[in-house]
Amino acid sequence: MSLSTAQVQRPPTERRPWGLEWRSSVWFITLVVGIAITTDLLIYSIIVPVIPFRLQNLGYDGVSGLVGWLLFAYSAALVIFTPPIAFLSEKYKNRKIPLLLGQAALIGSQVMLMEAPTFWVMALARVAQGISACVIWVVGLALICDTVPEKIVGKQLGLAMMGMSLGFLIGPPVAGALDKRFGFRGPFIFGIIVTAIELIGRLLIIERKEAIRWDASFTNLVGRNDPSKERVAYGAVQGEKRPEETETPTRVPSHTQARAETERQPKDEPAEPAQLSIPRLLFKLVRSPRALSAVFLTLSYGIMISSLEPVLPLYLQSTYGFDVSKVGLIYIAAVVPSFISSPLSGWYADRGGTIVSTVVCLVGSLPFWCLLVIRSHLAYFITMFALLNLFATGSISPITAEFAMVTRSLEGVGCETLTDGHVYGAFNVAYGLGSAIGPVIGGQLYDHVTPNRGWLELCLFNAALVVVSTLVTLCWFGETAVIKRAVQYFRRRTSAKSEVDEGTA
C-alpha cells in the first residue's frame, strides 16, 4: 500500500517533537548507528587484553582455553538470539525500542563482568553482551536502510561500518592503559561511561515512520523497507521501469508465472510476498553452491580473526614479557591496516568483481600466517602482524558484498521476499558461528598441543584454512566461478582446434 494523507495525520493533542528534522535525518541516524557499532566493538575488544590476566589473578589454570569459552559465549548468544530479534523487529517495524533494550543489556553485562567472582558469572555477562551486539548488527543496520534513500544506502552503511575498525582501535590500548593506572575495574568503568553517553543518541532517534506523522515531506526519503517505495530488482538502475511494473510497481516478478499472478492482483492492493525466516533463508543458501561458498567464507573469516583473541595476550607475555598495557598497543597493528584494506577491497569489488578482490586478500594473507611463527625481534612480529591483518581484514568487504548479491539472486529469494533485518540477520548467524568456534579452537590448540608449540599450531591451522577458503573461492564463488570459466575456455579452445584440424584434413 502507499502512504496517503490520512496516514500522516497526527493526533491534535500531541506536540511536535523538538528537533524533528535533524533527529530523523539521514546523517544523524547514520552517526548514531556508527557510534553504536564503535561502542559494541570497543566493549567487545576492551576485555581481550585484560581478562586473561584477571583469570590468572583469580587462580584459574588453562587461561587461554577459558578465554576462548568466554568469547564463545558472546558469539553463541549472537547466533541464538539473532533470529528472534530480527523476526520481532520486522514484525512490529520498531527499531528504537530494541536498540534501547540492547543498550540496557550492555550496561548490565559490563557491571556483571567487572564484579564477577567466578568464571560462570563472566560467561553469563558475555551472553548478555552477545544479545546486545545482535541488536545493533540487525536492528541498527536495518534502521539505516529504513531511513536512507536507496541510491546512497551503500555509502551510509559504509560510513557506519567504519565503527568496527574504530572500536577495535580504541578498545585494547585504552584497556591496557586504564588497567595499569586504575586496576582491573578501570577499563569497565570507562566502557560503562561510553555506553551511557551513547545511550543518549539512541534516545534522540526519531524513526522515519514517526516523523511522517508530523511532516509528510519525510515520505521523500524512501528507505528500502518502506511499502510505498518502488521495488527495484538487484542490479537494476534506480528509477528504471520494467513493462510489468506499469500497473503494480511494488512487485518484482522473478519469472513468467509470478508476472501473471501480479497482473491478476487488484491495482489498489498489490500482493504482499511472503517473507522468509532466517533459518529458512540459511537453508536456501546452503542448497546453492555459490551461496554456500559465501556462507563458508564468512564462517572461515570469523574463525581466523577470532582464534587469535584468547591466545595473543598470552603469547606476547611469554615471548616478549608484555603486560596488559603493552598488549593493548600491539592491537593497533591489527586495526590500522583495516582502515586501508577494507574500503579499498570493497571499492575494487564494485568494479572488478568480488572474486578477484577476495582471492587477492586470501592469497596475500597466506605467507604472513607462516612467517608469524618465526620468533624474532618485536619489530619483526609487529610488521608481520600488520601485513597479515592488511590482507585478512580486506577480505570481509567483498565477502559481504557477495553475500548480499547471492541472497537476492536465488530463485524465490529476491528483494521482494527479504527485509534488511533478515539479510543482516543471516550474515550475523554465519559470522557469529565462526567467531564462536574460533576462540575455542585457538584456546584449545594453545593450551593442549605440544608444550610451547601452541602458537605454531594455531598459525598453521589458519594458513590451512586460508588454502581451503581460496579453493572454495576459485571453485564456487561469484556468478561464474573461476574454475567454471577455465573449463569453458578449455572446451572452446579444444572445439576450435578440432574444427581447424577437420578443415585441414
Key attributes of the depicted protein:
Growth Hormone, Chain: A, mainly alpha, globular, single chain, 505 residues
- CATH homology superfamily name: MFS general substrate transporter like domains
Structural class: mainly alpha
Low-confidence stretches: 1-8, 221-273, 414-418
Q: Helix count?
A: 21
CATH topology tier name:
Growth Hormone, Chain: A
Number of domains: 1
Using DSSP, what is the number of strands? Answer: 0
Order of helices and strands: HHHHHHHHHHHHHHHHHHHHH
Share of residues in strands: under 5%
Mean pLDDT: 76
In which range does the helix fraction lie?
over 70%
CATH architecture annotation = Up-down Bundle
Largest sheet descriptor: none
Query: Can you identify the CATH class?
Result: Mainly Alpha
| Form type | globular
Radius of gyration: 25 Å
Q: For the record, give the distance between the C-alpha atoms at the N and C termini, rounded to a whole number.
A: 69 Å
GO cellular component, one term: membrane
Protein name: Major facilitator superfamily (MFS) profile domain-containing protein
Subcellular location: Membrane
Keywords: Membrane, Transmembrane, Transmembrane helix, Transport
